[in-house]
């Protein structure tokens, strides 16, 4: 149950509403390459426009390092947003100060103003009260709809909520409800699928899920570290030496829940032109490395997924950017799509994989936030959510 105030709980008519969106989208030569995050914010923006608000949008883009950099300007994103909305979209060349104030002063109800990149100021990531206050002074109300940055306590995500009434947007609500329910009140069996390169990023997630999930399927580079911890020789595979003891401990704690690969695709080099072979679970020959899960593992994982009531997936099963090592990830995507489970996918790489596989419409919820969804899986409170007013 979502306990925070929602945008629908605010009286927005004629008011200046500052919305923190996540418009951190890939740009190439000033052209938006993927508009998923922009489209995800549309329901909140449209609701505000329909209810006569003056809509002010704030976001970061990339990592400009706290100073202005034309490469990271939100101007192309503002122009693109204008093609999606039937409302005028204006642009302010700064997010605070006289230029922002002048642009807001001219804004009429039913219009949208996009502020320049919040990370052009070093005070943003420092969550500086001065910057938060300046942002808050532009508006009467604050709506946080940026789930993708909800795990960061920045001036524009958390700080601003200290000065004006704050509520959640529709995307934030949807993300928290889907992920929250999947973890706290799942339809069982609850199956978590974890992949990606590093186990160190996901130790807290695994520990939390061992308490909650019925099965945890482990693939990707992180599986190598688990296998190495059980004494298998992994040769040139990616293994996190620092995490071997932790992996050993987790295997001990989760013996009945953790499902590790039973075979693997190995290659003689980290390239799409490599020689490959499938080997059963055992020592990897010298000079070779594991780059995907094998066909028997795919079968075993698919069988567990088929019977699941809830599936949460974060991280690919192999180096899926290379077609030669994408079979495992795409097969898991297919198994999740074919199951009757409530399915939630989070994390940039798993989202890319599901989009590439053309199965996105068969997934219950695709999360827009990698880091934020991981912190929720870990059971942590998100700073960008904590500051919002309770209902």
Strand order across the biggest sheet?
5-6-4-1-7-8
Structural class call reads alpha/beta
Text of the CATH class of the largest domain: Alpha Beta
Can you name the CATH architecture of the largest domain?
3-Layer(aba) Sandwich
Question: Roughly how many Å apart are the termini?
Answer: 11 Å
Low-confidence stretches: none
| Global mean pLDDT | 94
Throw out a few tags for this protein:
about 400 residues, 14 helices, Rossmann fold, elongated
Describe the structure.
With 391 residues, the chain is α/β, with parallel strands linked by helices. It folds into two domains: 7-174, 3-Layer(aba) Sandwich (Rossmann fold); 186-377, Rossmann fold (3-Layer(aba) Sandwich), CATH 3.40.50.1260. 35% of the residues lie in helices and 17% in strands. The strands form four sheets. It has a six-stranded parallel β-sheet, sandwiched between helices. Helix 8 (220-229) crosses helix 9 (244-253). It starts with 15 loop residues before the first strand and ends in a 5-residue tail after the last helix.
């Amino acid at each position: 149950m979502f306990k925070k105030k929602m945008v629908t709980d605010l009286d927005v008519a004629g008011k200046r509403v500052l919305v923190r969106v996540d418009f951190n989208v890939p740009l190439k030569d000033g052209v938006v390459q993927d508009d998923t995050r922009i489209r995800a914010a549309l329901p909140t923006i449209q609701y505000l426009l329909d209810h006569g608000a003056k809509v002010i949008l704030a976001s970061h883009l990339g990592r400009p390092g706290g100073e202005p950099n034309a490469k990271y300007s939100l101007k192309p994103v503002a122009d693109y947003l204008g093609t999606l909305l039937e409302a005028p979209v204006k642009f302010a060349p700064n997010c605070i100060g006289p230029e922002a104030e002048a642009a807001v002063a001219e804004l009429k109800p039913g219009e949208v103003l996009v502020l320049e990149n919040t990370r052009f100021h070093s005070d943003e990531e420092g969550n500086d009260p001065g910057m938060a206050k300046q942002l808050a002074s532009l508006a009467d109300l604050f709506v946080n709809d940026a789930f993708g940055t909800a795990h960061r306590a920045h001036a524009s995500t958390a700080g601003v909520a200290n000065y004006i009434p704050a509520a959640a947007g529709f995307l934030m609500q949807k993300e928290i409800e889907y992920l929250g329910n999947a973890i706290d009140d799942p339809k069982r069996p609850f199956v978590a699928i974890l992949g990606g390169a590093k186990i160190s990023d996901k130790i807290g997630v695994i520990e939390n899920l061992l308490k909650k999930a019925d099965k945890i399927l482990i693939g990707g580079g992180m599986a190598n570290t688990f296998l190495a911890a059980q004494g298998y020789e992994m040769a040139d595979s990616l293994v996190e030496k620092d995490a071997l003891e932790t992996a050993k401990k987790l295997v001990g704690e989760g013996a009945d829940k953790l499902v590790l690969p039973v075979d693997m695709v190995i290659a003689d080099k980290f390239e799409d032109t490599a020689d490959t072979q499938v080997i059963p679970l055992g020592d990897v020959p010298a000079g070779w490395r594991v780059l995907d899960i094998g066909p028997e593992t795919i079968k075993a994982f698919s069988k567990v997924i088929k019977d699941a009531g809830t599936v949460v997936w974060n991280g690919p099963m192999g180096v899926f950017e290379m077609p030669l090592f994408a079979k495992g990830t795409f097969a898991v995507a297919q198994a999740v799509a074919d199951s009757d489970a409530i399915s939630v996918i989070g994390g940039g790489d798993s989202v890319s994989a599901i989009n590439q596989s053309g199965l996105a419409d068969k997934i219950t919820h695709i999360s827009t936030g990698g880091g934020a969804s991981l912190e929720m899986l870990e059971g942590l409170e998100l700073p960008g959510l904590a500051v919002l007013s309770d209902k």
